[in-house]
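Anyone opening a protein record will find just a pair of labelled lines. With that in mind, the following record should read easily:
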Amino acid sequence: MTILAAANAPKLAVMAVAGLAAAGVIVGAVSLTRGPDRDLSVLPRTVAARLPDPDGGERRLWVQRDEVTVAEWNRCFDDGGCGFPLPVRPRTNPAAMPATGLSYPDTVQYAEWISRRSGHPFRLPDLAEWQTLAADVLPEEPDPIFRDPSLTWASSYLVAERKSRALRPTGGWSTSPAGIRDLDGSVWEWTRDCYAGSQGAIDPDRCPAFWVAGEHAAAMPFLESDPARGGCAVGAPPAHLGMRLVSDREPPRAGS
């Protein structure tokens, strides 16, 4: 988990969200299922992406092609791994609609469940990974309206593209060159990076907020699941909160 202070915030339009929760999130080690008891049918479809390494080389990251869907989330609930079911909207296919209304602890529950059931470790991406994966499909940052640094938030708000906040079925937005879908959609995705604000160093297990990524990056209180309802200090809040998992190892295939 990376802790990002305000001075290290990304260049994308950033919203600092008011009312950060004071409690912490403790993410423990996951016990992976081995042998015949593991269930590979829960594995999502992933694509291999190449990311730069700090040493100047490249590394591979296996990325979930689509955001976690309502059907995938409800399977986790039915298996006892997730705390609540998601409703199925009328005239929609739950296997083709992104799971939304998720807080950071909800995403941790799901990642731990699928890692345990499949016997393969999954995690949330960090913010830098997400931005690299999405760079080819996100719109270019427009020139600011105001040059005064104190009005940066106003420029970001006024020049931001007024994209539809409606949910679309998976695959309804752009596909990246690596084959990852909907990174530029109306669902902002949780990352594992802690937002420390002006506090600087902070115990990662007691982080009050985490970065979510979409058309811009936003620091969200870790218990927030509905950004339109929650307070936002700067700019317009994300439309929906969902998730996409990654793995540092190639996932197994059925029969392996």
About this structure: The helical segments are 70-78, 104-118, 127-134, 152-159.
